[in-house]
TrEMBL record:
It comes from Terriglobus roseus. Belongs to the peroxiredoxin family. Prx6 subfamily. Belongs to the peroxiredoxin family. AhpC/Prx1 subfamily. The keyword Oxidoreductase applies. GO terms for molecular function: peroxiredoxin activity. The active site is at C45 (cysteine sulfenic acid (-soh) intermediate). Gene3D superfamilies: Antioxidant, Horf6, Chain A, domain2, Glutaredoxin. One of its GO terms (biological process) is cell redox homeostasis. GO terms for cellular component: cytosol. This is Alkyl hydroperoxide reductase subunit AhpC (Peroxiredoxin). Keywords: Antioxidant, Oxidoreductase, Peroxidase, Redox-active center. PANTHER family: MCG48959-RELATED, PEROXIREDOXIN-6. Residues 3-168 form the Thioredoxin domain.
């Protein structure tokens, strides 16, 4: 069954570069970014893990945990981390899940169930669909999915932008328009009447009867 937004993120136990985890316990009361990779020692993925390593403090400042997954053994991940530091200049201090038996890739519908049960002998091309980003909320529900081809590195600045939107809209009855960035005007949701909007968002603008904008709430 494919996973959709607002589905509960499947729980699992796994070995990681920082020891064993139960995923829902790892999430706790936090927002989490889970991003997956088809194989260790692949060029695009090396740059991606390096990018996240350099941005990890930005995620932490937002109360967001990051965790990677790659279809290989944890022992390989630890060796790969040395290359990632050489390329990016940053240490990988977040955990990377070892998915040598393809369990998590299948659980998250990134590989079909009949793909075997071992990473041995598999190539990045075999595992091409394992290139997904999941953002999961404190309620353990999936809030976003993004799937990328192997030849396109992920834009983690965009993922941070989406997180900023989600964190804001989880606190206030607003939505964010196309290409929104922190500090720009936002949209008042349809659940707020005009009378309530005048109280909550004084001076709001009516662009169309269904499109009302206001300064970003603090």
């Amino acid at each position: 069954m494919s996973l959709r937004i607002n589905d509960v993120a499947p729980d699992f136990t796994a070995e990681t570069t920082q020891g064993p985890i139960r995923f829902h316990e790892f999430i706790g009361d936090n927002w989490v970014v889970l991003f997956s990779h088809p194989k260790d020692f692949t060029p695009v993925c090396t740059t991606e893990l390096g990018a996240v390593a350099t941005l990890e403090q930005q995620f932490a400042n937002r109360g967001v945990k990051v965790i990677g997954l790659s279809v290989d053994k944890v022992s390989d991940h630890s060796k790969w981390a040395e290359d990632i530091k050489d390329v990016s200049g940053a240490d990988v201090t977040f955990p990377i899940i070892g998915d040598f038996d393809l369990k998590v890739a299948k659980l998250y519908d990134m590989l079909p169930g009949d793909e075997g049960d071992s990473c041995e002998g598999r190539t990045p091309a075999n595992n091409a669909p394992v290139r997904t980003v999941f953002i999961i909320g404190p309620d353990k529900k999936i809030k976003l999915t993004l799937a990328y081809p192997m030849t396109t590195g992920r834009n983690f600045d965009e993922i941070i932008r989406v997180l900023d939107s989600m964190l804001l809209t989880s606190k206030f009855p607003v939505a964010t328009p196309a290409n929104w960035k922190v500090g720009e005007d936002v949209i008042i949701t349809g659940a707020v009447s005009n009378d309530d909007a005048a109280v909550k968002f004084p001076g709001y603008k009516t662009v169309k009867p269904y499109l009302r904008t206001t300064a970003q709430p603090k």
